[in-house]
Amino acid sequence: MIKSMTGFGKATVDCGTKKVIVEVKSLNSKQLDINLRTPSIYKEKDIEIRNMIKNVLERGKVDVYIYFDNAEDEKDVAVNQSVVKQYYNQMLEVAGSLGVEINKSELLQTIMRFPDTMQAKMEELDEEGWNCLKSAIEKALADVDAFRIQEGKVLIADILKRIELIKSLSGEVPQFEKQRVVTIKQRLQDKMKEWGEIKNIDENRLEQEIIYYLEKLDITEEKVRLANHCKYFVETVEKEEAPGRKLGFIAQEIGREINTMGSKANDHDIQKLVVRMKDELEKIKEQSLNVL
C-alpha cells in the first residue's frame, strides 16, 4: 500500500492523576530523522520510544512531542528545609551584629523568595506509567499511519494520472514524424544541390554521412524506452510497499528519454509535446519525493 510521508497524529491518555499527550508530525525526508521531546521522567525510555516510531513510520522527518496536561499545576514540590534554615540563621546573625530588630515572620516570607528554597521532587517512571505512555504513543502513531495511507492514495492517483498523460503525449509524436522526415529530406536535397557545384565529392562517403545523419535523428528507440519506463513505473507502484526511492530513479530515466527525444526531434510540433511531457515529469518528481 502506497503511503505519503506527510502525516499527523495525536493521542491523550489518562494516567492516574495526570493526562499524557503525544503529538506526532511527519514530513518527507531521505532517511528517518526523529526529533523527540519528552519530560525528563521519560528520558530513560528514549531508545524504546524511538524504536516504536521506527517500526511504524520507517522514513521521514518526524517530530514527536510528549507532555502532561496541566503539568505546571500538578508539579510536586517541597520546601528545601536545609537551605531555608541556613538563610534564616545567617539573616538573624547579620541582624544581631548590626543591632537591627527583625520580624521573624516577615523574615521567613522574604527568605522563601530566595533561590533554591523550593525543590521539585524527582518522579520515577514505574511500569504502569510506562505502559500508559506506550498506549498513547501507539495511538498517535496509528493516527499518523492512517493519515499517511489516505494521503498516499491521493498522491499516487495524481502521479499515475501524469504518467498516463506522458504516455498519451508520446503517442501523439508519430503523427508529426512523416512530415518531419519530408522536411529533413527537403533540407538535405537543397544542401546537395549546393554541394553539386563542388568538385571531387566522394559520393560513397557522402551517402554514408547522410545515412548516419538520418539515423542520429531517428527517435524510435527513445519512444520504445520511454513506453517501457512508464510501464515499469506503474508496475512498481502496484507491486511494492514503499517504492518512493525507486520511483525517483525511474523518473530520472523517463526524463533522459524525453530529453533525448527533444534534442533529436528537429521539429516544432514534437518539441511542443516534449515540453509538455517535461512539465508533467517535473510534477511527478516533486510528488514522488513525498512517497514513502
From TrEMBL:
One of its GO terms (molecular function) is hydrolase activity. It comes from the Bacteria. Its cofactor is a divalent metal cation. Residues 2-155 form the Endoribonuclease YicC-like N-terminal domain. The keyword Lipid metabolism does not apply. InterPro entries: YicC-like_C, YicC-like_N, YicC/YloC-like. It holds the Pfam family YicC-like_N. Keywords: Endonuclease, Hydrolase, Nuclease. Residues 176-291 form the Endoribonuclease YicC-like C-terminal domain. PANTHER family: UPF0701 PROTEIN YICC. Belongs to the YicC/YloC family. This is YicC family protein. It comes from Butyricimonas virosa.
